[in-house]
Amino acid sequence: MLQSIRDRSRSWGAKIIIGAVVATMALFGVESLVGLFGGGGDEIAKVNGEPVTRQQLELEVQRAIRSGQVPPEQERALRNQMLDQLITDRLLTQYAEEGGLHLSEEQLDQLIVSLPEFQDQEGRFSSELFRNRLASAGYTPLSFREELRVDMKRQQLQQGLAFSDFTLPSEQERLGALQRQTRSFRHHALTAADLEDDLEVTEEAMQRYYEANAEDYQRPEQVRLEYVVIDRQQLADEVEVEEEALRELWQERSHDVDRRISHIMLTFGGERSREEAVAELEAARERLADGEAFADLAAELSEDTVSAEQGGDLGVISRGFFGEAFEEAAFALDEGEVSDIVETDNGLHLLQATALEREPFEQVRDDLRREVAMSRVSGEFNERVQRLIDESFAADDLRSVADDIGLELHESDWVSRDGADGVLSEPGVMAEAFSADVLEEGYNSEVIELDEDRRLVLRVADHREAAVLELDEVRDRVRASVEARLRREALIELAAERVEQLRAGEAPEIEWQRAENVSREAADGLSQAVLQAAFRLPAPEDEEPVFGHAVAGDRVVLIALDRVEPGEVDGEVENFVARMAERLRAQAAIQGLLDDLRDKADIERL
């Protein structure tokens, strides 16, 4: 969390400007810029009455994907996480503004002129670059300043909390000593086989447990849904794409890629006329056609002596470094092809593309196929979506709509507001299912835009109110829980008896497992509960082991601590521990604030 605070302070301009314009244009087109910066878009959540829009969510999802943080195939799973982050940001912003955090106009001015996004090649603020970048992102200077002000207030709040706590030198020394300490101990897990008496689960015990934990057997308000989905990707998967079309797109994409070029150059105007130079190069082309190697001819004929020694190789070139005629010829070549004669200020040339800096066709074939197929089904997708909008609005059921448009009618099991999965768990879907029009009036829902490629309409097929399930309905679950609790209690009691016997030297033989010189970080296959219990025991005196036990879930483990070693002093480790302590304190402060804000906030997911 603290790292994210620092990271966010370094790249506000890039995040706000470049990220906004790239992701927004990719998602919604140029005309959407007005909607983005004007706060438009369907509401998917409210935080203390302030809306969070679907468009804002899509923008953050696409930013994460384009930044490489999340692969595209995880896009759908990413949405809930990003919505949580938007809600968190809104809570922090509201708290910062209520607390009166302030940035002066001078501070904003200083921040803007220091942003590298607005600096020229010499590192100086450029008003022209500032205006152009803001204009391209759909910002006015005032709207940009306001968004920057909000972001910086949120940053001030988090940094203030992060640096408000500290550790004393004595605490750091103590932490370092504890951190480098190692312990050697034995451990043995007690099992149900160690219990002498069988566990008896009585009806009375089950009833008591059921009544004491009734909230665990609460069935929330639920619905069964019918729904249809129009998925552009699914339509694209059914399209046949010719191999020729894929190779054409691959070649088109290769037109401007960097490439390795070799050349044979001849000059004219002195002892050689232009016509003579042309004739010599034409003769060279004929020799190439007869099978001679380009590199051999370049070494023999080219008057560019530097490249001739390398078989004519000029290295990898990009557009913009050579003249127009040279580049037009070079970038028209496929790998291995030789150009016609090209004239530049330096003379006449034959060019050969020896390699193109592109991914192999087979490696990108699936991506190309997806792109071609998606473009071909766009018209059908839009037509189907429009029909879905028109027909679902007027229909008294959803099956006839599905049959008319050629869609599969899906049926869900019982689902609650927070208990759906798959497509029904995506933002806004269950809110629509429990809306008054759909749940109470029985209408088909409005068309829900899940993302740019999917649209969904749903209808409530059945509904049941929240209720506590009867004991008979959950008897097996209750019995299992009571058995587990009784077994755990019996094992804990047995562990306490064995510890007393061990201390008195009266315990039966135990098959111990050994853990030698274990540190707090090196778990060595041990559970955290066992490791923590071993490090809580007091150090042995007079080489007498210290006994204890740990509860790790349903397991109870005996521990015999044999030895405590101070470990070696490592300045780097000491510094790391001190920094980590500061970070944990800061993180706890920030997390505490967030937990408090969430508890007190009115958060509504629509």
Automatic annotation (TrEMBL):
Q: Which InterPro entries match?
A: PPIase_dom_sf, PPIase_PpiC, PPIase_PpiC_CS, PpiD_chaperone, Trigger_fact/SurA_dom_sf
For this UniProt record, the keywords arranged alphabetically read as follows:
Cell inner membrane, Cell membrane, Chaperone, Isomerase, Membrane, Rotamase, Transmembrane, Transmembrane helix
Q: Name one Pfam family in it.
A: SurA_N_3
The lineage's top-level taxon is Bacteria
Its subcellular locations are:
Cell inner membrane
Transmembrane stretches, start-end: 12-30
PROSITE patterns xref list: PPIC_PPIASE_1, PPIC_PPIASE_2
Q: Which residues form the PpiC domain?
A: 256-355
| Membrane topology reported for the UniProt record | Single-pass type II membrane protein
Protein's UniProt keywords contain Cell inner membrane: yes
Which Gene3D superfamilies does the record match to this protein? 3.10.50.40, Porin chaperone SurA, peptide-binding domain
Which family does the entry's similarity section mention? Answer: Belongs to the PpiD chaperone family.
Question: Under which name does UniProt file this protein?
Answer: Periplasmic chaperone PpiD
Source organism (scientific name) = Halomonas kalidii
